[in-house]
Design brief:
Length: about 400
C-alpha cells in the first residue's frame, strides 16, 4: 500500500469524519443561536430530547472542532514541506492563504452565520508561522504548556459559581427567537451584526469579537499538536503504527469521556468549563487515534472513501452546511428556528451530512478540488490552475 497516498487519504477521511461531528454540534446553534436560547427552550423538551442533548454534550460538543484544529496545524506543516520542495517561500504562500481564509470567514460570519470559525483560523495561522521551524520537541513543550494552562483554568472554574443569565440576556434571547424565526434576511442580518446580549453596536461588537477570539485561543494547543504530529510522522506508514493508535484510543477515549460526563453525574460543582477545556480536546485526540486505528484495519473501503471525499471538500462542505441549515431554520427560509427539539435537529444534521457523504465522491470524480478550495489554492499560489508556479518547471 502506498505510504504517501495512504497518509493523505487517511487525513482527508479524518477531516471528513470531523465534519460529521461539527454539523451535529453546530445544529444546536443553528436551531437556538449562540447565546443559550436552548436553556430557555429546554422546558418544552421531551425526554428523548434531554437524553439526546446529554449524549451530544458528552460525545460531540467541543470534541470535533478540536479535531479540525489539529488537522489545520498538521496541514500547515505539510504545505510548508511541499512548498520548500518546490523551492518556494512557505511564509509568503501561507500568509496569502491565511489572509483569504480570514476574508472568507468574515463574509461567512457577516452574511450567513455567526458561528464562523474560519476568521480565527486565518488569524491564528499568522501566529503559527512563527512555529514552522520549531523542532518537534519544542512543539511538544508548547503543546504541554497550552494544555496545562487550560487545565489550570478548568480547575479554578470548578469552585467559581455560575452567575446565571440576567434579565437583559433573557429579553435578548426572546427577541432573537422572534427575529430569527420570522424575520427577513435583512432583519436577521441587522440583528446578527448590531445586537448582542452585551449591549448595542459598536462597542459590544468589538467586545464580542475579542471574546470569540479569546475563546478560539483554546484551540491553539491543538494547532501545535497537529504540527508536532506532522513533523514526527504520526500518520505516515500508518499500518506500522496500529499499536500507537490502539494505545492512544484506550487511554484518551475513556479519560475524555469521564471528564466530559462530569457535569452530568456530579452537578454540585461547576465542572462544565473543565469538561470543555480539557475533556473536549482529550476526547478529540482519542477520536483521532480511534479513527486512525479503524482506517488501517478496514483499509480503503468504499464507505471510508466517502469520508475522504467529504474531507477533500471540507471547506466547501463546511460552508454548504451553513447555507443549508440557515435556510431551514431562519425566517427567510423555512423558519424552523427554535421550533424543533434536539433529537429532531440531530436527525436533520445527519440527513445533511449523509447528503454530502453521498454526493462528495461524485464531485471529486470529476473535479480535483471543491470551489472554495480551488479559489483558496489559486490565491495562495497566484495561478489560474491553483498549482504552484514552480511545478511547471519540474
Amino acid at each position: 500500500m502506498n505510504t504517501s497516498g495512504t497518509r493523505l487519504q487517511l487525513i482527508d477521511a479524518m477531516r471528513g469524519f470531523s465534519l460529521l461531528g461539527i454539523i451535529i454540534a453546530n445544529m444546536l446553534i443553528f436551531q437556538y443561536g449562540s447565546w443559550g436560547l436552548i436553556d430557555i427552550q429546554s422546558a418544552s423538551f421531551t425526554r428523548l430530547d434531554h437524553i439526546v442533548n446529554g449524549l451530544l454534550e458528552v460525545l460531540v460538543v467541543g470534541s470535533f472542532m478540536p479535531i479540525f484544529a489539529l488537522l489545520f496545524g498538521f496541514g500547515i506543516v505539510k504545505m510548508k514541506d511541499s512548498l520548500e520542495r518546490k523551492q518556494l517561500s512557505p511564509y509568503t504562500h501561507l500568509s496569502r492563504r491565511f489572509l483569504l481564509l480570514m476574508l472568507i470567514g468574515m463574509v461567512h460570519a457577516f452574511f450567513i452565520w455567526e458561528g464562523d470559525i474560519l476568521t480565527y483560523y486565518g488569524l491564528f495561522g499568522f501566529g503559527l508561522l512563527l512555529y514552522l521551524r520549531c523542532r518537534p520537541n519544542t512543539l511538544l513543550v508548547w503543546t504541554s504548556i497550552g494544555f496545562g494552562v487550560l487545565l489550570l483554568i478548568g480547575l479554578v472554574s470548578v469552585i467559581i459559581p455560575d452567575p446565571g443569565s440576567s434579565m437583559a440576556e433573557e429579553q435578548y434571547l426572546q427577541h432573537m427567537l422572534t427575529v430569527y424565526s420570522q424575520g427577513s434576511y435583512l432583519d436577521i442580518l441587522l440583528h446578527r451584526n448590531t445586537e448582542t446580549p452585551l449591549g448595542s453596536f459598536p462597542f459590544s461588537f468589538v467586545l464580542m469579537f475579542l471574546l470569540l477570539a479569546m475563546t478560539s485561543l483554546l484551540y491553539i494547543p491543538m494547532f501545535w499538536l497537529g504540527m508536532y504530529m506532522a513533523k514526527t510522522g504520526v500518520f505516515e506508514q500508518a499500518n506500522a503504527k496500529r499499536s500507537l493508535y490502539a494505545r492512544g484510543t484506550l487511554i484518551l477515549l475513556p479519560l475524555g469521556l469521564i471528564l466530559k460526563a462530569l457535569p452530568l453525574f456530579m452537578p454540585v460543582l461547576e465542572w462544565e468549563t473543565l469538561a470543555v477545556l480539557v475533556g473536549g480536546p482529550m476526547l478529540a485526540i482519542g477520536y483521532v487515534f480511534a479513527f486512525a486505528w479503524l482506517y488501517v484495519n478496514v483499509g480503503e473501503r468504499r464507505w471510508m472513501n466517502h469520508f475522504a471525499a467529504v474531507g477533500k471538500l471540507s471547506l466547501s462542505n463546511y460552508l454548504l452546511q451553513s447555507l443549508i441549515s440557515t435556510t431551514l431554520f431562519y425566517g427567510y427560509g423555512f423558519g424552523w428556528f427554535g421550533q424543533f427539539g434536539v433529537a429532531a435537529g440531530t436527525c436533520i444534521a445527519l440527513a445533511i451530512y449523509m447528503l454530502q457523504w453521498l454526493l462528495s465522491p461524485l464531485y471529486v470524480r470529476r473535479y480535483s478540488y471543491g470551489p472554495v478550495e480551488k479559489l483558496l489554492r489559486m490565491w495562495t499560489n497566484l495561478s489560474r490552475s491553483g498549482q504552484p508556479k514552480a511545478a511547471f518547471f519540474e
